[in-house]
From TrEMBL:
InterPro entries on file: DAO_C, DAO_C_sf, EF-hand-dom_pair, EF_Hand_1_Ca_BS, EF_hand_dom, FAD-dep_OxRdtase, FAD/NAD-bd_sf, G3P_DH_FAD-dep
Principal subcellular localisation of the protein: mitochondrion
Subcellular location: Mitochondrion
Organism of provenance: Sander lucioperca
Family that this chain belongs to: Belongs to the FAD-dependent glycerol-3-phosphate dehydrogenase family.
Recorded GO CC terms: mitochondrion
Record-listed E.C. numbers: 1.1.5.3
Gene Ontology annotations of biological process type: glycerol-3-phosphate metabolic process
Protein name per its UniProtKB record: Glycerol-3-phosphate dehydrogenase, mitochondrial
Top class in the EC scheme: oxidoreductase
Task performed by this protein: Calcium-responsive mitochondrial glycerol-3-phosphate dehydrogenase which seems to be a key component of the pancreatic beta-cell glucose-sensing device.
UniProt keyword Translocase present: no
UniProt keyword list: Calcium, FAD, Flavoprotein, Metal-binding, Mitochondrion, Oxidoreductase, Repeat, Transit peptide
């Protein structure tokens, strides 16, 4: 089997002659003008069959079943697969796409959220005189500029600081970063610059001051990866592609080629995962864009084929936004084990990662405690000692599987360049494997070029350079003001809707419910501390969301930002979706099958599945395991006495435990009222025995875990401390005022 390396020599204007003629501002304006012209040229020739509304998922499934033959069937709904579908349909090819889970449910939603050329790849290219890696960086920088242009609502330039702690490193890193700017040419987002120690600390006050000599700031792009992936898939649907999530390939269809007599792939047997119904999808060409599962589909074609994908796991964590400035990232170029760690503001939180270790392929990767602690330790190395980096501050964690392309005998995944390959099997299966998020478009272009040539398809040239994605049309940076003025949305909610849906934000606002309050007029939040509103759940269904996980993980990003907040929002999300999708009672109510979470008992099947997702894949288990029955109590005598005194203010009868009734009585005595269900959830977080009460040993374990930083923002700990302080200020409470007595 012949492999064709995917290093397309994309021409980028960036010569010294051009730089001499134009100043920097003129160059930037020239770049924008060229991109706008490319956009106009791309869209002018295209017909948009579904300019108003997308076909419903059932209509898409019907199109898959009833179309006699597609030109192209793409298997895989990640960034690359969606990119292939968009490329194909805009070349006037009859296009289908199937994804066995949800769009962007795999690696494409679990990235570092950067659109970048790869600073470390450029370093390797220079140090090893590797022209191939240099061209990969150059291509990625071109694609970075294009992606920022075609989806401005979902992406933006981000300054990233590289702190320097040794004088000799300053010119070394400066030369490398300047080379990064030069390779980008006129597509350089903004010129990099050097900062003094004082200025660096002014921009990034959390930074460790000791031995800091200065810093270098360069620019890359940042995006909402899952929403970007979805925008690509939805754009392909707008242009007429038949796309369906939760549709898996059971096996490939083959037929004898009348000219050669050889077997050729001619489609796929598919199954609707939701209903179980199977059907055939015929196609002249099948493209395998399944990421880490590349080899699984290749073996459906030929069981004897050798693996070409070596998966690598990358873990990220999310910590509170106060760990980083609002608009400045941080790069640790040399961690304790030689890896690179990014520390980035994202969605008003802070993302830190990633790790890089060989792994097995799974649809449900789980972040490990060892990787979480490694990232936390690296963060500690770069932050001021004044900033206590606590394990309990990890609000979410996830693991993504990178589909690295390598020789099957290679053991060192860190030295692998994330290049991609396009291969065509003897039976005509086209496989696109490897690559990186930023270059999805050029990878798709090359894949379609190869597919058209191999299968003699009649197609037009590629039109995706400059082709605006879903939501980009009508977007402006000040669009949120119109939402506030026209609909009475909160400012934060309006900004969120515009940065998520772009010009389609008005469609979401129309679905928002009236609050019944003076302000905001519309837009009931799913949880108080995040700007996600109930209307987004309804709009998510229009965007092919089929499960509660689709909503918390990919239509909104709540599950990636705070697992506890996502857990709190789930009942309402399930309620809205159940009503809209007519979920049956059987679908809603089952006995939970996972003994790890048996305490939840009978709940909605959707609720249980989503909570299992949060528990295992989004780091809720790792977070909850910081407080266990075997946790060591590490408190001195004074602390033990203080916490016992606090506990007995609630346990007035010296039972040795407290219940919701005990807590409610104390709260009522200080005129604080908390919903009974909410109070039950607060105690349940600490109730390790799950017997409906918090014993004094469990309370001591909680306070010890808080002291060690393993647990933070414990609602029970904060509630009891606040109540104690209020009681001490007010003095003794009489029986009649406390509601006691007979």
């Amino acid at each position: 089997m012949a492999f064709r390396k995917a290093l397309k020599r994309t021409a980028i204007i960036g010569s010294g002659a051009v730089a001499t003629v134009f100043g920097l501002s003129q160059l930037i304006e020239y770049r924008k003008t060229q991109a706008r012209l490319a956009h106009v040229a791309a869209e002018a020739e295209l017909r948009v069959p579904f300019a108003d509304d997308f076909p419903a998922r059932q209509a898409q499934l019907a199109a898959l079943q009833n179309t006699e033959e597609f030109d192209v069937l793409v298997v895989g709904g990640g960034a690359t697969g969606a990119g292939c579908a968009l490329d194909a349909v805009t070349r006037n090819l009859k296009t289908a796409l199937v994804e066995r889970n949800d769009f962007s449910s795999g690696t494409s939603s679990r990235s570092t959220k950067l659109i970048h050329g790869g600073v470390r790849y450029l370093q390797k290219a220079i140090m090893q005189l590797d022209y191939e890696q240099y061209m990969m960086v150059k291509e990625a920088l071109h694609e970075r500029a294009n992606l920022l242009e075609i989806a401005p609502h979902l992406s933006a330039p981000l300054p990233i600081m590289l702190p320097v702690y040794k004088w000799w490193q300053l010119p070394y890193y400066w030369a490398g970063i300047k080379m990064y700017d030069l390779v980008a040419g006129i597509q350089c987002l903004k010129s990099s610059y050097v900062l003094s120690k004082t200025k660096a600390l002014e921009l990034f006050p959390m930074l460790k001051k000791d031995k800091l000599v200065g810093a270098i700031v360069y620019y890359d792009g940042q995006h909402n990866d899952a929403r970007m992936n979805l925008a690509i898939a939805l754009t392909s649907a707008r242009y007429g592609a038949a796309v369906a999530n939760y549709t898996e390939v059971v096996h490939l269809l083959k037929a004898n080629d009348p000219q050669t007599g050889k077997e050729k792939v001619c489609g796929a047997r598919c199954r609707d995962v939701i209903t179980g119904r199977e059907f055939d999808v015929k196609a002249k060409c099948v493209i395998n864009a399944t990421g880490p599962f590349t080899d699984s589909l290749r073996k459906m074609d030929n069981q004897e084929t050798k693996n070409i994908c070596q998966p690598s796991a990358g873990v990220h964590i999310v910590i509170p936004g106060y760990y980083s400035p609002d608009n400045m990232g941080l790069l640790d170029p040399a961690t304790s084990d030689g890896r690179v760690i990014f520390f980035l503001p994202w969605e008003k939180m802070t993302i830190a990662g990633t790790t890089d270790s060989p792994t097995s392929v799974t649809a449900h990767p789980i972040p490990g405690e060892e990787d979480i602690n490694f990232i936390l330790n690296e963060v500690r190395n770069y932050l001021s000692p004044d900033v206590e980096v606590r394990r309990g501050d990890v609000l979410a964690a996830w693991s993504g599987i990178r589909p690295l392309v390598t020789d099957p005998n290679s053991k060192d995944t860190q030295s692998i360049c994330r290049n991609h390959i396009v291969s065509i099997s003897d039976s005509g299966l086209v496989t696109i494997a490897g690559g990186k998020w930023t270059t999805y478009r050029s990878m798709a272009e090359e894949t379609l070029d190869a597919a058209i040539k191999a299968h003699s398809l009649s197609a037009e040239p590629c039109k995706t350079v400059g082709l605006m994605l879903e939501g980009a049309k009508g977007w402006t940076p000040t669009l949120y003001i119109r939402l506030v003025q026209d609909y009475g949305l909160e400012n934060e909610v309006a900004q969120h809707l515009v940065s998520t849906y772009g010009g389609k934000a008005f469609d979401v606002a129309k679905m928002a419910q009236v609050t019944g309050q003076r302000w905001p007029i519309v837009g009931k939040r799913l949880v108080s501390e995040f700007p996600y509103i109930e209307g987004e759940v309804l709009y998510a269904i229009k965007e092919y969301a089929c499960t509660a996980i689709d909503v918390i993980a990919r239509r909104t990003r709540l599950g990636f930002l705070n697992v506890q907040a996502a857990d709190e929002a789930l009942p309402r999300i399930v309620q809205i979706m159940g009503k809209e999708l007519n979920w049956s009672e059987e679908q809603k109510t089952v006995r939970f099958y996972n003994t790890l979470l048996n305490e939840w008992g009978k709940r909605s099947a959707e609720l249980e599945a989503a909570r299992k997702f949060l528990y295992l894949e989004m780091g809720y288990r790792s977070r909850s395991e910081q407080l266990t029955k075997t946790s060591e109590i590490n408190l001195d005598n004074q602390e033990v006495a203080r916490y016992k005194k606090r506990f007995h203010k609630f346990d007035k009868e010296s039972k040795g435990f407290i219940t919701t009734v005990d807590v409610q009585q104390v709260l009522e005595s200080i005129n604080v009222h908390i919903d009974e269900n909410a109070l039950h959830e607060i105690l349940n977080e600490v109730d390790l025995n799950k017997n409906g009460q918090v014993e004094i040993d469990e309370f001591m374990q909680l306070m010890s875990a808080v002291k060690k930083g393993q647990v933070s923002d414990s609602r029970l700990a904060i509630l009891m401390k606040t109540a104690e302080e209020t009681l001490e200020k007010r003095g003794p409470v009489t029986v009649d005022r406390s509601g006691g007595g007979v």
